[in-house]
């Protein structure tokens, strides 16, 4: 008779959160299987600002230095109001003393590849979409779209904003903010010559930003709230491009140039979703031997560029906690029930560590986005004249977090 294969750990989703968790576990000598619905690493959105806390997590799993070599360090943030034309805040990231932070805009493809390349071959199983989860004593069974089933001691949902695992844990569908973001990347044949700065422009009801990733590539984004007349724009990239370019009339022409240079077909708006703080406060981040990480746990708006960085933190903390659930004296045998209890405790510990961090960062991001993108004249005035430095400092505050190393002591 054939013995049934039981995986120790199954991670659903080979995005930032899933791969960081898997690499962290691998470094700690624990094997995991990553199930990815796409037929390759799925790259959406070109690049992401990676702040100090993200670099600490990347270092913890051992891929920080490789990515540093591929991306330039951003030396500051300049915010300009397109309403008044004034620079509302200028912040240096290289200043000596408390405000020295590392920020680089990392190409997503390179980040995913750097993580995936650290895993033993066969760790990621592509074309494996999880459609249902079933209880089976001390185990869980993941049902895949192709009819396959996989039995596991631990099931981790890193399956993004529409997570099936989060749904199984009782979380509601992430809420829509009413806002969208378009992202693009302008690639140059030679050095673009731009200062390595994060440039932000705040308009009436929209926010636009640009930052170099390296000497040849500049990442840009445009975030706005469509009004009812704009509905048709969502389905018409050419009209959407015209709409965006028109909004940017007051922007310096050299920055506007690479948005204009982007092909109309690439003007694809991404809806911005988030989880309410009370759901994060009361929801089950873990239940028995199941938990969620990354966007599956804390989908949030991109306004302080922290969601992906928090997904990296989740991966390090989760790998560290889970390794305690698998540690045992060499040569000893652990009963199924005892192992289940240890795993459950380790996931509860992870949930305790991540709950308040997730609430804090996602609430701050939502609040910053609402102020930065304000339509009202009063809030725009306060944003540009009173709150500019406060808002710029929030980027520092939320990135000043250390998720620690993979080892508990
Ligand atoms: C417009 C925008 C701009 C952003 N900018 C930044 C930024 O500057 N800085 C930053 O830190 N963050 C940023 N973010 C957030 C960042 O992109 C996400 O937080 C990050 O990608 C989350 O990683 P993840 O691994 O949790 O989820 P994902 O990246 O969504 O990965 C989930 C993976 O799971 C797979 N999957 C899904 N369902 C299943 C299933 N049922 N079975 C198997 N596989 C499945 C998917 O194919 C995917 O590969 C931004 C987000 C948006 C929308």
TrEMBL record:
<dbReference type="InterPro" id="IPR044560">
    <property type="entry name" value="MOase"/>
</dbReference>
<dbReference type="GO" id="GO:0004497">
    <property type="term" value="F:monooxygenase activity"/>
</dbReference>
<dbReference type="InterPro" id="IPR002938">
    <property type="entry name" value="FAD-bd"/>
</dbReference>
<comment type="similarity">
    <text>Belongs to the 3-hydroxybenzoate 6-hydroxylase family.</text>
</comment>
<dbReference type="InterPro" id="IPR036188">
    <property type="entry name" value="FAD/NAD-bd_sf"/>
</dbReference>
<keyword id="KW-0503">Monooxygenase</keyword>
<dbReference type="GO" id="GO:0071949">
    <property type="term" value="F:FAD binding"/>
</dbReference>
<dbReference type="Pfam" id="PF01494">
    <property type="entry name" value="FAD_binding_3"/>
</dbReference>
<feature type="domain" description="FAD-binding">
    <location>
        <begin position="8"/>
        <end position="324"/>
    </location>
</feature>
<protein>
    <recommendedName>
        <fullName>FAD-binding domain-containing protein</fullName>
    </recommendedName>
</protein>
<keyword id="KW-0560">Oxidoreductase</keyword>
